[in-house]
Design goal:
This protein is mainly β and 124 residues long. The chain is 0% helix and 48% strand.
Amino acid sequence: VQLQAYGGGLVQTGASLSISCAASGRTFSSYVMGWFRQAPGKEREFVTAITGTGGSTYYADSVKGRFTISRDNAKSTVYLQMNSLKPEDTAVYYCAAGGGAYYYPRDQLRYNYWGQGTLVTVSS
């Protein structure tokens, strides 16, 4: 599985931004898809994840109520809608596909494939 994230950019505090991740391969729907982020000088952290059917979603407390993950299995794409952005949301956002992440969606080690990352910058 190859993943390509895109859609990052520079926005102001309070703005919205949507980023996407397109996957190759015909088994996209069998993977839990997650978004992780890494801010400058910090470790990469879990943001959100969605199961293969889209039936379950998981969010970090820091983004709950502001971010929404979704997926379109017909297009092999996962989306992250980010609203009410804050400067602390500034990071490189990575999408990931996890064959073993169904029971551990927040665990980075459960994800087998990673995209190259897209930079989201929120100015104050």
